[in-house]
Write a structure and sequence with these properties.
Blueprint lengths: L8 H12 L5 H7 L16 H11 L6 E5 L5 H7 L4 E5 L6 H4 L1
Parallel strand pairs: 1-2
Helix pairs in contact: 3-4
Length: 102
């Protein structure tokens, strides 16, 4: 597994700031892991942590639910769902994102 590259102090500070809000910005994550969104896969990533939590809330995910997430991406929905569900199984087609999700 590759470790994130944080070449600049600013990147590190941004990473810490977003972690305090429970979600690292997609731009910071992609840059730190030296990755790019793949248009051929139609990748779009959530930027707002409250949106993932709201989607989970509206989905009615409860403590006894098992969630299957198709296209886990950078894991924003995965983390939000895992806070509510008994278990989350995340599937990601883009192999370059798998180490980041682990």
């Amino acid at each position: 597994m590759r470790r994130p590259r944080l070449n600049r102090a600013r990147d590190y500070v941004n990473l810490l700031i977003f972690k305090e809000r429970d979600m690292t910005s997609p731009h910071t994550l992609l840059k730190a892991w030296n990755l790019r969104a793949r248009k051929a896969l139609g990748q779009n990533f959530l930027k707002e942590p409250s949106l993932a939590a709201r989607i989970v809330e509206l989905a009615g995910i409860g403590r006894e639910d098992v969630v299957l997430e198709i296209g886990a991406g950078l894991g924003a929905m995965t983390v939000a769902a895992a806070r509510q569900a008994r278990r989350v199984v995340a599937v990601e087609k883009d192999r370059q994102l798998v180490p980041l999700l682990r």
